[in-house]
Amino acid sequence: MAIAYISHADCALHDMGHHHPEQPARLSAISDRLIASGLDMVLHHHDAPLASRAQLEAAHDASYIDEIYAASPAEGISWVDGDTAMNPHTLNAALRAAGAVTLGVDLVMQGKAKQVFCAVRPPGHHAEHHRAMGFCFFNNIAVGAYHALQAHGLERIAIVDFDVHHGNGTEDIVSDDQRLLFCSTFQHPFYPNSGFGSTAANVVNAPLPSGAGSLPFREAVETHWLPRLAEFAPQLIMISAGFDAHQADDMANLNLVDRDYAWITRRLCELADQSAEGRIVSSLEGGYDLHALARSVEAHLKAYLGE
Ligand SMILES: [Zn+2]
């Protein structure tokens, strides 16, 4: 069955200024690589819709959503956090990014795709119930997960996050909601200095020390994630797919390589085949070295194909 690739031209118009690592070129680097590799031809392309107000309110406080709309500038740049800014196109890009994940959920639940990759920005996993931070405004993966619960009647969804940064926003939103299991690997101690000592029963955090590479990452996944995921038997697996734990990425100090992303994707495909009819929706989070990002996304998608 098809792999769906969801993006939108609006996502490239969000721009936080020269030298900001979360830059529009991330998306063109990915699409260029997929075209050059020929993988692009086997993907089913979709334009991301705008997330609805109701979809956002399932994951975010209504007054917070109002604040983001109010912060959207008519011109110039408006900073909402020390490293997170809006230009006149950011609001639409953020709505497309969250909307992409809801469309991805619809496609897998309607049997129109087996796996989905949302090539979107801004990313989402640092966005909390009522706070923007870390380049994120709306929590795309959480918005999609609540859409799957509410619009499709699912009862168990796993969200896994292999970005180098802890998905504090996702943890904040889903903690103690037993319909959702959140599994995360991340460098610790490191930004945003969360995820250590979490007590929610539905949160599985596996911190990794600076310098850790493939082996500790795979051991953490096999020891901490996979047994919990198998026991939970999710009906859908959603991935916060950040690629900034790559050894070539200057943002942090983990040393993953392209084939680690293929490996984790295959493990998740096996789990999805067991309990979720193969359904996986992944959405781009971090990944700032353009070459490593593009190759890692290629490895991630090839793993969907079984390669
Ligand atoms: Zn990150």
Structure description:
Helix content is 39%, strand content 17%. The protein is of the alpha/beta class. The protein has an eight-stranded parallel beta sheet with strand order 2-1-5-10-9-6-7-8, with helices on both faces. A two-stranded antiparallel ribbon has the order 3-4. α1 (25-37) packs across α9 (290-304), α7 (214-232) runs parallel beside α8 and α8 (258-275) runs parallel beside α9. Zinc ion binds at residues 163-165, 242, 244, 285-286. Zinc ion (ZN) is lined by residues 163-165, 242, 244, 285-286.
Physical arrangement of strands within the biggest beta sheet: 2-1-5-10-9-6-7-8
Bound molecules: zinc ion
The number of strands is: 10
Secondary-structure element series: EHEHHEEHEHEHEEHEHEH
Structural class, from secondary structure content? alpha/beta
Rounded to an integer, what's the Rg over CA atoms?
17 Å
Overall shape? globular
Low-pLDDT windows of residues: none
Count of helices?
Answer: 9
Topology:
Blueprint: E1 3-7, H1 25-37, E2 43-47, H2 53-57, H3 62-71, E3 78-81, E4 84-86, H4 90-109, E5 115-118, H5 140-152, E6 157-161, H6 168-174, E7 180-187, E8 203-208, H7 214-232, E9 236-241, H8 258-275, E10 280-284, H9 290-304
Parallel strand pairs: 1-2, 1-5, 5-10, 6-7, 6-9, 7-8, 9-10
Antiparallel strand pairs: 3-4
Helix pairs in contact: 1-9, 4-5, 7-8, 8-9
